[in-house]
Amino acid sequence: MADPRAHSRGKLSASLEAYTLLFLAALVAILFAKLPATADVFPTAANFQAIAGGQAVLIVATLAVLIPLICDEFDLSVGANLGLASVVSASFMAAGLPLVVAVGAGLLSGALIGVVNGLLVTRVGVNAVIVTLGVSVIIHGVVQYRTGGKSITEGLPASWLNVGSESIFGIPVILLIALVIAGLVYYLLTYTPYGRQLYMMGANRQAAKLVGLRANWLLFTCFVVGGLLAGAAGVLQVARAGAAAPSVGESFTLPAFAAAFLSAAAIKPGRYNVWGCVVAITFLAVINGGLNIAGASVYIADFVNGTALISGVALAVYLRRRRGA
After folding, report:
1. Cβ neighbours for 81, distance < 8 A, ≥ 6 positions apart
2. Which of 90, 173, 183, 280 could make an S-S bridge to 244, C-beta 3.0–4.6 Å?
3. Concatenated DSSP letters for 126-149?
């Protein structure tokens, strides 16, 4: 007969493991709220709004990394794809085309990059890291050619820029949009056969093939969905920044991968997951935001994100091995 106390201890241990990262984020926030160098600014509503609004684009970019990662694949073109989508959508806006057309163009450009990545990986058989790295370099060249290295700032509609600056009940509108997208991705991964099949692919691709899953098709679609999400992040970036900078995507790649890997240590330990990504982004945002207010050098954020990436990978490997044990 099972020991109820052992069962209770197991549940408590699982809950602690699932919410440790969220607890640490709260602990760091309290620390910065008490430190003399940050106490006047960090705990203010304006600062929390700025931090929250600033993470909206990163949330969607991290989801773009997450989808292929669940299939045990890496899409290194997410940042470049984001930048391309922002330039495409901003160009359409500046040309005076309807907002829905401009937004659709940004989403379509992201999805098309996903199609290219997916075909090269599944049909040609090139390693995903090589494909997406090469595609990102090509995208960078295309964007530089299209923009001449200059940001697109003129002719952007105020209605879209307001999305990046306005709030509802103190919550940035752009963050609400990002959370809605996160909710849709969560539903896709958790409550649909497609999502469960992606997780099966990531757990054991050979076994997934043996039970009749269309492995190549699933692999192809995960790059397309990831590309679509990268396109959405790029469109939101135009609203957030009020411009489309030719090299903006580069700044999202490392934080997105760090948060995606760290997601395996939160909410559902051992599994890359949507709300784990949101928790990881919150954790990193609190640290970087506090250090920024304290006057830390800009490069400190690189140290934080790099350390988070290494820690996230190590934790993900450890937790997945423990689950398989």
Report:
1. 64, 109, 110, 113, 114, 136, 139, 227, 230, 231, 234, 249
2. 90
3. --HHHHHHHHHHHHHHHHHHHHTT
Separation between Cα atoms, residue 213 and residue 17, nearest integer Å: 32
Evaluate whether residue 7 is within a structural domain.
no
pLDDT tens for residues 49-86?
988 899 999 999 999 999 999 999 999 999 999 999 99
Least confident of 19-23, 42-46, 208-212, 314-318: 314-318
- Which single residue is written with the structure tokens 């993470």? 55
Integer Cα distance of 123 and 158 in angstroms: 43
Name the band, by pLDDT with cuts 50, 70 and 90, for residue 7: very low
Number of domains composing the chain: 1
| DSSP result, 98-132 | -HHHHHHHHHHHHHHHHHHHHHIIIII---HHHHH
pLDDT tens per residue, range 138-193:
999 999 998 998 999 999 999 999 999 999 988 999 999 999 999 999 999 999 99
C-alpha distances out from residue 223 to 31, 122, 230, 294, Å:
40, 10, 10, 39
CATH classification at residue 231:
1.10.3470
The residue range of the domain holding 229 is: 19-324
Element (H, E) at 301: helix 300-324
Q: Is 3 domain-assigned?
A: no
Q: 299: which DSSP letter?
A: T
CA 175 to chain centre: 13
CA atoms of 221 and 215, how far apart (whole Å): 10
Q: At what angle do helices 45-54 and 56-70 cross, to 10 degrees?
A: 40
Place of tokens 């506090």: 290
What pTM value is reported for the model?
A: 0.92
Domain-embedded: residue 45: yes
| Range list of H helices, 242-273 | 250-262
Give helix then strand counts, H and E, for the chain. Answer: 14, 2
Q: Quick one: which H or E segment has residue 167? A: strand 167-168
User: 118, 224 in Cβ contact below 8 A?
Assistant: yes
